[in-house]
């Protein structure tokens, strides 16, 4: 039986430059964490992007929910050693401030930060998720 990966909250660290590190993308390819080339460009080019820890059960739940609704999200699996750099890059995209917290999975819809697991589940239960996805161009029905 597999061991569960713990759910962590990350606080932005201003001590390092995340642009010099490398993270792993969904298909196993390596993508530099530069806003112009990597994470930021991925967010701008895709209607829905899911950033999550490799093997995290909560990330799997979000991906399966979106796929079940008919969305084909771009998935960015973050390796354990590069989590801090990716979190810093995601907060930079959103203009985050020091001390702001972020939890995986992180979902971007229409190029903007949508939220995490709690926000996706709450909007799905209330019936607001499908119209939001249609407005972002992720659903055509």
Automatic annotation (TrEMBL):
PROSITE patterns assigned to the protein according to its UniProt record, in alphabetical order: GLUTAREDOXIN_2 (PS51354)
Source organism superkingdom: Eukaryota
Subcellular location: Cytoplasm
Primary location recorded for the protein, binned into one broad class: cytoplasm
One Pfam family linked to the record: Glutaredoxin
Assigned GO CC terms: cytoplasm
All residue ranges annotated as the Glutaredoxin domain in the record: 48-113
Keywords noted in UniProt: Cytoplasm, Redox-active center
Keyword Cytoplasm in annotation: yes
Protein name: Glutaredoxin domain-containing protein
Organism: Cephalotus follicularis
Organism ancestry: Eukaryota, Viridiplantae, Streptophyta, Embryophyta, Tracheophyta
């Amino acid at each position: 039986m597999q061991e569960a990966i713990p759910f962590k909250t990350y606080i932005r660290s201003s001590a390092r430059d995340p642009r010099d590190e490398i993270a792993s993308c969904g298909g196993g390819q390596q993508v530099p964490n530069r806003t112009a080339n990597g994470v930021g460009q991925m967010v701008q080019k895709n209607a829905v992007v899911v950033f999550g820890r490799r093997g995290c059960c909560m990330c799997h739940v979000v991906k399966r929910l979106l796929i079940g609704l008919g969305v084909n999200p771009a998935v960015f699996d973050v390796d354990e050693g590069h989590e801090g750099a990716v979190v810093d890059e995601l907060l930079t995209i959103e203009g985050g401030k020091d001390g702001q917290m972020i939890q995986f999975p992180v979902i971007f819809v229409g190029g903007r930060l949508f939220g995490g697991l709690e926000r996706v589940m709450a909007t799905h239960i209330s019936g607001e998720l499908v119209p939001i996805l249609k407005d972002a161009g992720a659903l055509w029905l």
